[in-house]
Amino acid sequence: MIALDRVRRRYGMVTAIDDVSLTIAPGAFVALVGASGSGKSTLLRMINRLEEPDSGSVTIDGRDVTDQPAHRLRRRIGYVFQQHGLFPHMTVAANIAIGLTLAGRPVGDRVGEMLDLVELPRDVATRTPDALSGGQRQRVAIARALATAPPILLLDEALGALDPVTRDAVAGRLVDLHARLGLTTLLVTHDMAEALLTASRVLVMDEGRIVADATPAQLVAGQGGPVAEGLMAVPRHQAERLAALAR
Ligand SMILES: Nc1ncnc2c1ncn2[C@@H]1O[C@H](COP(=O)(O)OP(=O)(O)OP(=O)(O)O)[C@@H](O)[C@H]1O
Predict the structure, then answer these.
(1) What is the fold, at CATH topology level, of the domain defined by 1-76+152-246?
(2) Is 81 helix (H, G, I), strand (E, B) or coil?
């Protein structure tokens, strides 16, 4: 279980995270949505210690994340962000294996297995990232994040740079992997429709606070409160306009 207890984080005059308490059960698929600057990335990055709280605590299975060296913590937490972050001079194979290599663990057939997992042909292993499409690169980034078999996966706008068709396909793959590998997944997204269609719990952030914590069904039923309703207006309006076109 991931728990945040009264967490605050300020940058100068800006309060990025304002007294957030939260628990996330093992196996949950949680989406974090909210306007730009509402604190989503900061909250996510506190879990793998890319950011530290000014006050309050972040624990995983009851253990404070600061109790161990950050690199050891991060072996248990896969992290994928928008600009894939692959090492450009390394092959796909070396990129996927980097976590294992740094930990001194055997690589074996892990690269091939991970490529199978994200449904990429095994022969991309010898290419460098610049010889892949954007969607393929993002799949490699996901494969790299999962290569050390972490129980937790953090995704920060990981699908944001993809075209809509690839985005939908990769999102579907993520939902599938989440269930198959028994992951606890946190997905930061600007896209409310993506949150509703992938997660089982949606947290809505506004000015550093969590202002709604609801299931997709509750949000669709209009039970998320005013900020959530503002974000719901976009997919609702699009669905209405598409339905009108079909009439
Ligand atoms: N390193 C930093 N230095 C100064 N201010 C920062 C820093 N990181 C974040 N902030 C500020 O903290 C607030 C929350 O930022 P954060 O990136 O968490 O928001 P977000 O909801 O993820 O936004 P976006 O959707 O645009 O990525 C913003 O006002 C941002 O400008």
Answers:
(1) Rossmann fold (3.40.50)
(2) strand
Query: pTM above 0.80?
Result: yes
Do residues 1 and 26 touch, judged by C-beta distance below 8 A?
yes
Tokens 């962000």, located at residue: 81
CB atoms closer than 10 angstroms to residue 113: 14
Among 9, 11, 204, residue to substitute to test ligand 1 (most atoms within 8 Å of Cβ): 11
ipTM of the complex: 0.95
Nearest residue (by CA) to ligand 1, atom 11, is 16
- 40-57 pLDDT, tens digit each: 999 999 999 999 999 999
203/181 Cα distance (integer angstroms): 23
Q: How far apart are CA 148 and CA 76, in angstroms?
A: 7
| Domain residue ranges of the chain, discontinuous segments joined by + | 1-76+152-246, 79-149
In Å, how far are 77, 120, 188, 232 from 195, measured between CA atoms?
20, 25, 8, 11
